[in-house]
Design goal:
Layout: H1 2-10, H2 19-22, E1 29-34, E2 39-45, E3 54-61, H3 63-84
Antiparallel strand pairs: 1-2, 2-3
């Protein structure tokens, strides 16, 4: 019994988060690029009427970790939708006028 407890304790990871990181960073656009060695996800904050958006955070993942993230997001979206209903997919839509010529 003691061996099982010791093994369980060895498999746990103690994760800490600073107050600054815990506050989070708002993003309303993610841009994903990849190479054979890594996936890069840039989280961007776009503001209405401002033609220039800023990357607020960049995460670099190995392909294996990118696939784990994909699976975790898929599972969590399914759980969310089971509780709150379908998330409306606005793929390809810019949520507001970015001040770009030709957009209403």
């Amino acid at each position: 019994m003691q061996d099982n407890k010791n093994q369980a304790n060895q498999n746990q990871i103690n994760i800490e988060i600073s107050d600054e990181v815990g506050e989070g960073i708002y993003s309303n656009l993610a841009i994903i690029t990849h190479s054979p060695a890594e996936f890069i996800i840039d989280f961007v904050k776009m503001m209405p009427g401002v033609p220039k958006a800023k990357v607020k955070s960049r995460i670099i993942l190995t392909p294996q970790h990118a696939k784990r993230l994909y699976k975790a997001l898929k599972e969590n979206v399914a759980k969310y939708e089971a509780t709150h209903g379908d998330i409306r997919d606005s793929e390809g839509e810019i949520p507001f006028n970015m001040g770009m010529p030709g957009q209403a």
